[in-house]
Amino acid sequence: MALQDSIEKQGILVPLTVYQLRTKYILLDGERRWRCALKLGLRSVPVIIQPRPDRLQNIMMMFAIHNSRKDWDPLPTAIKLEELEDEFNARNGRKPTEVELSGIASLSRGEIRRLRKLSRLPPKEKQELMAELEKPRHLQQFTVDQVLEATKGAEALKKKNVIDGKQEQRLRRAIIRKFKSGTIKNTVAPRKLAKMAQAVERDEISASAARKAVGRIIEDPDYTIDAAFEQTVEGLDFQHSVTQLVGRLLRDLRLHIQRDYDLTDDLRESLSSLQTLIKKLLSR
Q1: Which candidate, 234, 187, 175, 237, places its Cα nearest to that of 167?
Q2: Looking at the domain covering 2-124, what would its CATH class be?
Q3: Residue 154 neighbours by CB under 8 Å, 6+ apart
Q4: Which residues, other chains included, contact 140 with Cβ-Cβ below 8 Å and sequence gap of 6+?
Q5: Among candidates 59, 35, 64, 77, which has minimal Cα distance to 12?
Q6: Which among 105, 28, 90 has a CA at the least distance from the CA of 60?
Q7: Domain assignments of the chain as residue spans, ordered by start
Q8: For the chain, what is the largest distance between any 2 Cα atoms, rounded to a whole number of angstroms?
């Protein structure tokens, strides 16, 4: 372990943080350093002694310490965030707002939303992910971000009523398996499922065609999201993007004419090339 090797060679450079409770000292920060010290048989470790905090202060202090060093994994952070919300609720008789939680946890609102998504994962998946995070990084088969992307992709299809709750769960599990096996290598590949859902909403493809593709992702271990996207909506999605670009170009060109701007040589050349390409496309 890199941390243990570092401590063996240089000692503990960042003191542990503790508070005193009668004859004992309670660890606030530095569990990994403490475990490494025990394994190395160190007789003493450097510490900073803080006044004893109450539970809410304790959790807030842990967030402040860990956020300053960015060494907490997302899932343990999400679990600790739940504890912080529960403690706030116990004190104030209500759940904290996103703004309040952001303030007391010293996290951005975007990070709060991300951690809450992790908190909503089924218990089995949280246990599996926690076990994965306990492995050395080079041995981990999938990441928190991959689980989140798989979750968001499956949710997008469910929100558009392309799949039901049971299929959503099976799809998420299938995508995670494909991340583990290396069948899917791109972490953001599940975002194409949201584009598939949007194509169904726009009546560009049928819900049954999308469900068929989803079913194959679930059942076929070698079938990728990229393949499903290519075979269902890739061309339509591309044309939709081009239509939006053309709309913005038309708006800008009308504004150019309305304001009677001079036509530069560069713009004239670009419009001439565009005109040639448009004629070629329309003649097909």
Answers
A1: 175
A2: alpha beta
A3: 163, 168, 169, 171, 172, 175, 190, 193
A4: 132, 133
A5: 35
A6: 105
A7: 2-124, 133-232, 245-282
A8: 87
| C-alpha to C-alpha distance for 236 and 199, rounded to whole angstroms | 8
CA distance 236 to 4: 54
Distances (CA, A) of 91 to 3, 5, 83, 96: 38, 43, 12, 10
Two tokens, residue 281: 């496309």
Concatenate the DSSP letters of all residues of 26-65 into one string. EEEE-HHHHHHHHHHT-S---EEEEPPP-HHHHHHHHHHH
Question: What gap in Å lies between CA 271 and CA 277, rounded to an integer?
Answer: 10
SS3 (DSSP) at 21: strand
User: 48-59 burial by CB neighbour count: b if 16+ within 10 A, else e?
Assistant: eebeeeeebebb
Query: Which residue from 190, 81, 83, 77 is spatially nearest to 142, judged by alpha carbons?
Result: 190
10-residue stretch averages of pLDDT, the chain, 284 residues long: 80 87 84 87 91 73 61 76 87 89 84 87 85 79 90 94 94 94 95 94 91 95 95 84 92 94 93 93 88
